[in-house]
Amino acid sequence: MDLRSMRSGPISGIAEIPGDKSCSHRALILGALADGETRISGLLVSEDVMATRRAVEAFGARVEEVDSQWRVTGAKWRSPPGPIDCGNSGTTARILMGAAAGFDLTATFTGDDSLSRRPMARVMQPLARMGAELGGGDRLPITLRGRRLGGIDWVNEPSSAQVKSALLLAGLKAHGAVTVREPSLSRDHTEIMLREFGCDVVQGDDFVALGDMRELTGCEIAIGADPSSAAFALTAAAIVPGSSVEVRDLLVNPLRTGLFESLDEMGADVELSDKRLQSGEVVATLRIGHAPLQPIEIPPERIPAMIDEIPLLAVAAAFADGESAIHGLAELRHKESNRLDAVIAGLTACGVTVVAGGDSLHIVGRGRVRGGARIAAQGDHRIAMAFLVLGLASDEPVTVDSAEMISTSFPGFAETMRALGANIE
Ligand SMILES: O=C(O)C1=C[C@@H](OP(=O)(O)O)[C@@H](O)[C@H](O)C1
Ligand SMILES: C=C(OP(=O)(O)O)C(=O)O
Question: Active-site residue 113, yes or no?
Fold first, then answer.
């Protein structure tokens, strides 16, 4: 399916953004591991999260939706009746392998073509070291045989919240110390949510470890709006003249807000208010408005806090006045598509000068972008949405293919954007 975006008047209003995808996966998985019932509000109902829902049900948990609240009843996990189809979702595959590894079960994990091309050794190696048996190469399908697990002390390099989460959840059933060292901090939603479920988690400056109390008790979890989805509406506001968009109850965990901080540094009109704690996470109201953007230089250590927002940062840089540089982008090659190549090809097709070298991108902004291209989104939801945002401010319309994949993370994207005044058809 194609979608087309074209130059729009101001993008304005309060954007309705669904719940955070990372927290939604974790709430279902932790609920499925916990004693008793967990009640979740704000769960993202997207294809990726529903793959996790089906998976935890197949492992034995009960999941039901009652008046838009989700109730999960935990269980002792058992062998699922058939393969666990993780669809397009790396988070589902990698975190579930860890969560299941300490149970007496056998499970085969599969995924779609994109997920079947993504590396899995990064999670298989440490789980095998803990004692799990994993059959298959570095790619899905992979068969896991759960075992009695030992502890681990693992350096999480390259930084991956999925790998860290897999090890912490495997560690819940392990005998021995479980420590994950992080040279560069990745999102910490698993750690925060484990504490909400009553588990003892020790956070150091550059490591996280499980304490002695590793039992989970069902609880209430309220999930904030997804900053990675809100980023599309908020970046549109930053690049379309006259715009101002507000998102309420937005998850603003500092390990997720790299893009918003970068837009602020570039000169966009950024305002944060009503900051508060919700289920252990910081949520707030964020408003971003248009202003002429300056170029920016992003060092590698800032990438984990905006790993999924790099295509959008590249779009914003294309509208800035001068040359931006973004460094440390190696991990972008291992997402739903090779996002580094997809960004270079898409921006070039839209008339933007991009120079790529190693793991860095240099984008020469000229304050305006020609557009007028048909973008191959390569089945990648974030590439599709980022280039639709570009088309809202470029001189000529932009068409993207494989727009149906947007529902893996942000069902209702086009409707939400149109409600703010975006010209997307
Ligand atoms: O843990 C998570 O929920 C996620 C972690 C990140 O992946 P990595 O762990 O591979 O960095 C991110 O790109 C993905 O969209 C979601
Ligand atoms: C990389 C992403 O997700 P996942 O790894 O779960 O497929 C994403 O949503 O951008």
Answer: no
**Beta carbons within 8 Å of 179's beta carbon, 6+ residues apart:** 151, 152, 153, 154, 207, 208, 209
Assign domain 21-222 to its CATH superfamily: Enolpyruvate transferase domain (3.65.10.10)
pLDDT digits (tens, 9 = 90+) for 283-341: 999 999 999 999 999 999 999 999 999 999 999 999 999 999 999 999 999 999 999 99
Q: Which ligand is nearest to the CA of 160?
A: 1
Class (C level, CATH) for 3-19+225-424: alpha beta
Q: How far is the CA of 291 from the centre of ligand 2 (A)?
A: 30
Q: Is the pTM of this model over 0.95?
A: yes
pLDDT in tens, 90-116: 999 999 999 999 999 999 999 999 999
CA-closest residue to ligand 1 atom 10:
160
List the chain domain ranges: 3-19+225-424, 21-222
382 is annotated as contributing to ligand binding? yes
22 CB within 6 A, ligand 1: yes
Long-range contacts of 204-210 (CB under 8 A, 24+ apart): 206/181, 206/182, 207/179, 207/180, 207/181, 207/182, 208/164, 208/168, 208/179, 208/180, 208/182, 209/177, 209/178, 209/179, 209/180, 210/168, 210/171, 210/172, 210/177, 210/178
Position of tokens 């549109």?
236
CB 324 less than 6 A from any atom of ligand 1: no
- Answer whether 161 contacts ligand 1 (Cβ < 6 A): yes
Q: Is the CB of 253 under 6 A from ligand 1?
A: no
